[in-house]
Amino acid sequence: MDAATAATAKHVGARLLGEVEEGSLEELLDSLKVHLTGGLSTNARPHLPIPALASIASRHHRAVRSAPPPVLSVSGRYLPLLYHLVSTLIAEPHNYAVVVVDAEGRFDVMRVVVSSSFNDPSARPGSSRGEDKARNPSCPAQPLDLRHVYVYRPPCGQEHVRAALEAAGRWMLYGAHGSRAREWWGTVVIGGGSGMGVAAASVKGDVSAGWKGWLRVEREEVPRFPDGMSVDEALRDRDRRQEAVDGAGWVASSRVGSYVWGRMCDSEVPLFYGHGLRAR
Description:
The chain has about 280 residues and is α/β, with parallel strands linked by helices. It is about 35% helix and about 20% strand. The chain is built from eight helices and ten strands. A ten-stranded mixed beta sheet has the order 3-2-4-5-1-6-7-8-9-10, with helices on both faces. A hairpin with a 2-residue loop joins strand 7 and strand 8 (about 255-260). The chain is extended, with a radius of gyration of 24 Å. It starts with a helix and ends with a strand.
């Protein structure tokens, strides 16, 4: 090989090396899945498209030095948050596909498109109040979007939940379903159990909900009647108070901040706590 040829080969080799991108084995496998499944993929750390909630999750994982999954570990009255999250994920502009593994049998998929107060039985499709609440931006998904929510209901027990997770993964990646044009955001696991050891880690979804979790969901508190109020004053004020109760939202609280959503006349706002201050 003469000097000119050697110089050319060296130049080409340097250019090729410069184009090489470093990546992990997981990233390589994920890239192969995208290629093989026409765009459907799972992410190691799914993106939360609700900025306030994503910020709280990021702050929590930094504070405790943990890494997802799960991105969120939810406790308390967690179903309203799951409906809100799943509805946001499958609706425009995100258009994800989502798997829900529900070992408790409590996830009602229609709640994903009908955002209603859990304390209001009249808020159902077909009633005037139900139609008004169905427009709540907390659940923006439309009925056609429900085709991209895949619900598994295994029996209770970690082995059953783990088997359902594996089956869901195979189906989403290789099955002939109707969400192949969408990206698979990840899996929500309800009632996966606490578990012990390495084997239990596989039971956790990208979002896990159960009796124990660092993000606790409760109904937003409505101020009580002031001390000293008479019965007559309370009766005169009852309509306004009922409006406040009906319009109350939900609060997902953690040590690093809280997230409020579902208010009838208010937008979703994050609440952060630090140094005695409550910023909104």
